[in-house]
Amino acid sequence: MSLGSGDGRIRPSRADRREASVRRRRMYGIVALLVIAAGAVAATRFGGGAGGAAADSPSAAGSSPAASTPTDLLAFSVIGAPNALLATVGAGGAQPAAGLVLPPGMTVVVPGQGETMTEDVQALPGDSMRVGVSNAVGTWADHYAVMDLHDLGRAIDEAGGLSVNLPDAYPIGGTVIGPGKTHVNGSQVAALLSEDADDTDLRWASVLEGFLAAAPNLPQDAFTETDDAAAAASTLGAAAGAEVQVAPTEVVGGTAIVAKQPDLDDLVGNLFGTPPPIRALVQNGTGRPSVGEAVAHDLLPAGFRIVLSENASSFDHPTTTITANGQAHVDDANAAKRALGVGDVRVTQVPSGLADVTIVVGRDFEG
Fold first, then answer.
1. I need a labelling partner for 2 at 20 to 30 A (CA). Which of 29, 89, 122, 264 fits?
2. What is the DSSP letter of 355?
3. 321-325 and 357-361: which strand pairing?
4. Are 150 and 143 spatial neighbours (Cβ–Cβ below 8 Å)?
5. Secondary structure E strands in 314-367
6. Which fold has domain 42-65+276-361?
7. CA 130 to CA 107: how far, in whole Å?
8. In angstroms, what CA-CA distances link 261 with 132, 250, 267?
9. Do 42-65+276-361 and 72-252 agree at the fold level?
């Protein structure tokens, strides 16, 4: 298990992180409007020339999305603790089994909802939680599963307890457990994760790694919510020996905890064998609710990450417009069109440091 988390700075308060989130959303919105305005005045044409609309044809310079995920990935959530206990677990493919923890208090983009803290991601319905976790990690989770903390404790007891590598010494129930390799039971794990602590990410990573090492044989009713109980149980049971790491983060503006890039994408690639995601800016030009999440369901499995999700300047867009931000991203724009099943593809020569493609969703997208 990796005991490194973030950059070692003091974790800001949740109120400070939420205030910073609002400031960043405003900033991103201004950037997005400038990019779109610049794209509108850039020379464009349909048919694929420089500065024009791109034909649905390959471009040697463009990057291509992942054809398939080499491992079975599970968005895993354990509820009932004050801090978020979220992770992606991968097993069953050519890559060694692995797990990645999203730290509590981390701000991520949830398509259709904007910037959201991991505690709020965990509070979403299971499928929406999967979308948020997948977008944060940058690779699509094939399935999702939610367990209650006390159910996790019972499963640990049924497995005969766990051997965990604790990062510190913790007083639990009149005794001290850790640091280092320690045998714990279910009630000790529940107590360890129930504390509102700054090192919850490390505690959770230790427990998850030990839980996976035990190769739990979970019954299908062990989950409070899942899209496929058998698949979820299979992935968790097949992940014995998985190395669990914590997503690298950094503090921005002195208040907000965000993913540290490109470190996160490099780590995800090493753990799960996936390429860096294509960055997409998505705007709802229809006014219909839930468009952002519906778009994410199509884009994320095709190798995209939605870096900004917001409303368009108006809701009168009859046709979805997909703009490649530079000739190098024409392939990416065409991949987005294939994933969505609709859209006019264009290209602008105005560079964007925010996204590789900009998508304004029109009424032709039915989700």
1. 122
2. -
3. antiparallel
4. no
5. 321-325, 344-348, 357-361
6. Alpha-Beta Plaits (3.30.70)
7. 15
8. 18, 9, 10
9. no
Mark 241-277 as b/e (b = at least 16 C-beta within 10 Å).
ebbbbbbbbebeeebbbbbbeeebbebbeebbbbbbb
Angle between helices 126-137 and 291-299 (to 10 degrees): 60
Q: Give the span between the Cα atoms of 151 and 78, in whole angstroms.
A: 9
pTM for this predicted structure = 0.83
Q: Please report, as a single letter, which amino acid is at residue 25.
A: R
Q: 141 or 60: whose pLDDT is higher?
A: 141
Give residue limits of the domains in the chain. Answer: 42-65+276-361, 72-252
- Would you say 304 and 280 are in contact if contact means Cβ atoms under 8 Å apart? yes
Q: Which CB contacts under 8 angstroms, 24+ apart, belong to 182-188?
A: 184/156, 184/210, 185/153, 185/156, 185/157, 185/161, 186/152, 186/153, 186/154, 186/155, 186/156, 186/157, 186/161, 187/153, 187/157
User: In sequence order, what DSSP letters do the residues of 205-221 get, joined into one string?
Assistant: HHHHHHHHHT-----GG
CATH superfamily, domain 72-252, is LCP protein (3.40.630.190)
- pLDDT one-digit tens code per residue, 329-341: 999 999 999 999 9
Structure tokens, 149: 């903390």
Radius of gyration in angstroms for the set of CA atoms belonging to the chain, rounded to a whole number: 21
Q: Which two tokens stand for residue 310?
A: 């917001």
Identify the pLDDT of residue 8.
43
pLDDT(94) > 90: no
DSSP state, residue 42: S
β-bridge mates for residue 256, sequence order: 252
Structure tokens at 23: 């400031």
